[in-house]
Fold ARB-07466-like C-terminal domain-containing protein.
Amino acid sequence: MSASPSRPAPRAASAPAHRAGPAARAAGAPRRWAALAAALLLAATAVGSPAAAAAPDPEGGTAKLRKVLDEANRGFVSAKTQLTNSQRREKQLQQELRDLAGRQERLAGTVKQVAARSYRSGPLTGVSMMLESDSPDAFWVRATAMDRIFQLDAARLAGLVDARREIVRAQAQLDGEITVQTKQVAQMKARTTEAEQALIAAGGGGAAGGFLPGNSPLAKPARRNPDGSWPNESCNVDDPTTGGCITPRTLHAMQQAKSAGFTRFVSCHRGGGGGEHPKGRACDFAAAKGGFANVDASGGDRAYGDRLAGYYVKNAGRLGVLYVIWYRQIWMPSTGWRAYSGGGGPSGTHTNHVHLSMQ
């Protein structure tokens, strides 16, 4: 707006300043106090406001901790998948062995009957029967019948030998699967120890109560490979939360939570730093309605985070969850819920947002 004509023109910036007299100072004091009060009020509002739109940063923890947790839990999930596949093959082989044992028993009985008949009749009985034929036609009929009997007996003997060979093969495969399972169980235990030791070194790691899923619905399963493992995915899908990129599996997990009623602010891709965010494999879900607040969630906001954390744990195997962090606790497939010490304020301790990392 332009200055009123009745007011003197404003003083140029280069003009020398003049000391105000007592009357002027008294007149300006209320204005200064009002400006100061407004500034203090604005600062207080900025600190306590729950509607900060920026994603939580720093994430908390160290790059080393995140690296160990990532490798340990991916290794655990891989070993568990191989163990599950091996157990499935073991069941199939056990059924195959039972079937082969039954076949062998039946063939063995038949072969015993053949042997008993041959013993009673002797090797020349068949030839004698053909020579006693009344005509050439009868001779060839009997010869053909005897040939069929010999072929059938030979097939039965061959079948018995084949059944026994298959039993040896299936048993060897079964023994191999048991070896695989022993190896994978040991691998899972080692990965669990790695994750626990990393958490302890960071000041956490103790057993924690975790968060129950309540009546959370089951999520629609994400796509898996034929062997049950998770496909390798790159950051090639548009991130609807930040304008960056995320993996298809991460997008699916976020959409499933939204369908389940978790519709508050989310931030996924974040450039720079470590962890899963730059790779498009992590999302942060604000607990407060207005966004990421720089305060510990409480009341309804805390309950919202509890339910969301429980939802992702309940659907971890269906969605491909790597780990979940919420309110000083971390859930991993290798350990379950454990105490987590990320350090720092509400962002680092994850008391204002639920962190989700994906396979």
Summary: The first strand starts at residue 237 and ends at 238. The first helix runs from residue 22 to 48. The chain has seven helices and eight strands.
